[in-house]
């Protein structure tokens, strides 16, 4: 695991965007694994700007998102499909048909999760996986105690994650407690993993991920076993590292 510590969230976004740009130069038809949440927004803006400037193209890219809430239609403003379209896909030259988000509204989630795994494999596997990290060490919605070899499946969110994400929902609005997420085993098969962490609220999770034991109590710690994982943290998120 390589750890890069930078001064600001803006530098984290630029450094992450550089890695994606290099990936596209190596392989224009790359398969991306993508994340939602606050952390990657700046990186997406960087990539949008580089696409508009003509420095990179997503024309041949296929993408698979990490996770989706269960039982929110894709048109719901808090669904991760809506987030990806409005924050990224609508602003770049990717073919919308080549973007996939886990099946949060499938009638048969078990079959739909297996199909999502098959689709990733059918695309040749994920070349570059973008991740954020939860305050509890989750990656995707693989909450603490998740199986370290898990595949795409339905996961119940912890109280902490529900509370952390409540900021995105209006008061009284239904907030799902279930999600569909790629598993830790799915993430570990990506050829390159790029995890962004910014802000002091992530400092304890970053320490556990980088310096703690590999443990299901901190799912992100599994990345210590990944042959090509890069953690890009700002000073605040890295502040507990020894
Ligand atoms: C989002 C995801 C989550 C987030 C994590 C951090 O697709 O998989 O693991 O990366 O909850 O969220 P933010 O960036 O909002 O702090």
Structural account:
- With 242 residues, this protein is an alpha/beta fold.
- The chain has a single domain (2-234), classed as 3-Layer(aba) Sandwich (Rossmann fold), CATH 3.40.50.
- It is 30% helix and 17% strand.
- Helix 7 (203-211) links the parallel strand 9 (192-197) and strand 10.
- Helix 1 (9-26) packs across helix 2.
- The longest helix is centred in the N-terminal third of the chain and has 18 residues, at 9-26.
- The protein starts with a strand and ends in an 8-residue tail after the last strand.
- The mean pLDDT is 97.
- The protein binds fructose -6-phosphate.
- It holds the Pfam family Glucosamine_iso.
- InterPro entries: Glc/Gal-6P_isomerase, Glucosamine6P_isomerase, Glucosamine6P_isomerase_CS, NagB/RpiA_transferase-like.
- Its EC number is 3.5.99.6.
- The active site is at 67 (proton acceptor), 136 (for ring-opening step), 138 (proton acceptor), 143 (for ring-opening step).
Helix content: 25-40%
| First-to-last CA distance | 15 Å
What share of residues are in beta strands?
A: 15-25%
Please tally the β strands and state the result: 10
Number of domains: 1
- Encode the helix/strand succession as letters: EHEHEEHEHEEHEHEHE
- Attached small molecules: fructose -6-phosphate
Instruction: Enumerate the spans where pLDDT stays under 50 for 5 or more consecutive residues.
Output: none
Supply the number of helical segments: 7
* Assembly form of the protein: single chain
Helix-strand makeup class: alpha/beta
Largest sheet at a glance? Answer: 7 strands, parallel
CATH topology: Rossmann fold
Shape-level CATH architecture:
3-Layer(aba) Sandwich
Name of the top-level CATH class: Alpha Beta
- Give average pLDDT, whole number: 97
| Global shape | globular
| Largest sheet: spatial strand order | 1-10-9-6-2-3-5
Calculate Rg over CA atoms: 17 Å
Pathway: Amino-sugar metabolism; N-acetylneuraminate degradation; D-fructose 6-phosphate from N-acetylneuraminate: step 5/5
Function: Catalyzes the reversible isomerization-deamination of glucosamine 6-phosphate (GlcN6P) to form fructose 6-phosphate (Fru6P) and ammonium ion.
Subunit structure: Homohexamer.
GO molecular function, one term: identical protein binding
């Amino acid at each position: 695991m390589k750890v890069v510590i930078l001064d600001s969230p803006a530098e984290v976004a630029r450094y992450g965007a550089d890695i994606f740009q290099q990936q596209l130069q190596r392989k224009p038809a790359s398969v991306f694994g993508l994340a939602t949440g606050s952390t990657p927004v700046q990186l997406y803006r960087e990539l949008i700007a580089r696409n508009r400037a003509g420095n990179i193209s997503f024309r041949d890219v296929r993408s698979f998102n990490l996770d989706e809430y269960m039982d929110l239609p894709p048109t719901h403003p808090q669904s991760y499909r809506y987030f990806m379209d409005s924050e990224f896909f609508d602003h770049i030259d990717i073919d919308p048909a080549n973007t996939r988000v886990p099946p949060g509204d499938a009638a048969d989630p078990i079959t739909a999760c297996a199909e999502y795994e098959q689709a990733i494999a059918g695309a040749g596997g994920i070349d570059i996986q973008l991740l954020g990290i939860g305050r509890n060490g989750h990656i995707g919605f693989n909450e603490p105690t998740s199986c370290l070899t898990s595949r795409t499946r339905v996961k119940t969110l912890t109280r902490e994650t529900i509370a952390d994400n409540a900021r995105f929902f209006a008061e009284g609005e239904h907030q799902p407690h279930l999600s569909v997420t790629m598993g830790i085993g799915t993430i570990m098969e990506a050829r390159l993993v790029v995890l962004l962490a910014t802000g002091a609220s992530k400092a304890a999770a970053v320490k556990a991920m980088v310096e703690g034991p590999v443990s299901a109590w901190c799912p992100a710690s599994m990345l210590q076993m990944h042959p090509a994982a890069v953690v890009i943290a700002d000073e605040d998120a890295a502040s507990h590292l020894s």
